[in-house]
Amino acid sequence: MKKQITNMSKESKIRPRKHLGQNFLIDRSILEVIVNAAKLTKDDLVLEIGAGTGTLTEALSRDAGHVVAVEIDERLVSLLRQKFFQYPDVEIVKGDFLQLNLTELTASSTLISEKSKVVANLPYYITSPIILELFRHAELFERLVVLVQKEVAERIVAAPGSKRYGAFSVAVQYHADPEIMAIVPPEAFWPQPKVDSAVVKMMIREAPRVKTVDEGIFFAVVRGGFAKRRKTILRALSMAGKTYPELASVKEDSIRRILAEVGVDSERRAETLSLEEFGRIADAIALERGELSQGEKHDVH
Ligand code: SAM
User: Fold this and answer.
1) DSSP letters for 26-47
2) What residues contact residue 191 under an 8 Å CB cut-off, 6+ apart?
3) Whether residue 230 is found in the same domain as residue 197
4) What does the pLDDT look like over 138-158, one tens digit per residue?
5) Residue 50 CA to chain centroid, in angstroms?
6) How far is Cα 188 from Cα 149, in angstroms, rounded to an integer?
7) Is the CB of 224 under 6 A from ligand 1?
8) Residue-level pLDDT at 17
9) Is the pLDDT reported for residue 235 higher than 90?
10) CA of 49 relative to ligand 1 center, distance in Å
11) 41 CA to centre of own chain
């Protein structure tokens, strides 16, 4: 028999809101997997996104120095404020995480720890935007431990050549080293979701996995490449200039030459390219663009 946690939402007769991704964790063993993966100390500031009824919040508050718990649903915010009334180290923030200022959120503690940790059972309908927003401020965090849909977890850890590998995998792996810590069945939640979930740990890298001259060009190459998944990298990048201004000046002939120069077969597809290969293409494009603008200056004079 699994160790179950009584959910306060059930007790308080608060009906879960499906559109807010309210699937509350009720399996204690999964809670332990999450907390263990976070390796908390009293020096840690933890940011929790979607605190719900505070099950995870409470577990985090035991080991961390300070917990900032964000929740969008007013009914749950009231519940959380009552529950953590006497916890000076738990701060309940009401709001839509995607509208909040992350730097302010993580600076709101008097703790000395340089970087924060994110630990959360994420609302499934906005998992990727939340993770991408966290990576936009990657310098603030030491690690992210999140419970997400299994399919999203597979995209996070996917390697080149696998069917889940895409622009999202590259964005995560550029900033972090991800690892799936546990697969979580629907029974671990109340109410139960339709699909399996997974606990994923992402250790934020000191420096991005690939060193590129221009990050904007790197991500334009990645997104442009994957936008036309079924086409060759040559075709996909030749068409990408329409959407990505960073690639607008680089025409098909130049891309063909660049691919040959950096040793990437132009017939390959984006889904087979490693981060390093995307990086080499991006740097060659950056160089090409630099030369172009120098050429243009010559023309003017
Ligand atoms: N942490 C709780 C637990 O583990 O049982 C609840 C997790 S539940 C999967 C996700 C929570 O995120 C819900 O409480 C939901 O109301 C909240 N949520 C949804 N959208 C949000 C948003 N944009 N900003 C902050 N919280 C949000």
Assistant:
1) -BHHHHHHHHHHHT--TT-EEE
2) 16, 22, 23
3) no
4) 999 999 999 999 999 999 999
5) 15
6) 13
7) no
8) 94
9) yes
10) 6
11) 23
Question: Given the CA of residue 130, which atom of ligand 1 is nearest to it?
Answer: 23
CATH of the domain at 223: 1.10.8.100
Q: Is 76 in the same domain as 59? A: yes
6 pLDDT higher than 90: no
Expressed as residue numbers, the domain containing 66 is: 2-206
Instruction: Mark which of 206, 237, 263 sits at the end of a domain.
Output: 206
Give SS3 for 57. Answer: helix
Q: How far is the CA of 96 from the centre of ligand 1 (A)?
A: 10
Count: domains in the chain: 2
CATH of the domain at 95: 3.40.50.150
Taking residue 299's Cβ as centre, other Cβ atoms within 10 Å add up to 6
Tell how far the Cα of 22 is from the centroid of ligand 1, in angstroms.
Answer: 6
Same domain flag for 27 and 90 = yes
CB atoms within 10 A of CB 188: 25
Examine the fold and report which residue of 182, 206, 230 is the final residue of a domain before the chain moves on.
206
Q: What is the pLDDT of residues 51-102, one digit of tens each?
A: 999 999 999 999 999 999 999 999 999 999 999 999 999 999 999 999 999 9
Which tokens in the block code for residue 279? 């990086």
Per the prediction, the chain carries an average pLDDT of: 92
Does residue 21 have its Cβ closer than 6 Å to ligand 1? Answer: yes
Give the CA-trace dihedral at 166, 171, 175, 177, to 10 degrees: -20
Across residues 261-275, what is the average pLDDT? Answer: 97
Residue with CA closest to ligand 1 atom 11: 50
Torsion angle of alpha carbons 215, 107, 38, 96, nearest 10°?
-80
Check pLDDT > 70 for residue 282: yes
Tell me: do 24 and 145 sit in the same domain: yes
Q: Is the CB of 121 under 6 A from ligand 1?
A: yes
Domain identity same for 77 and 167: yes
CA of 204 to the centre of ligand 1 (A): 23
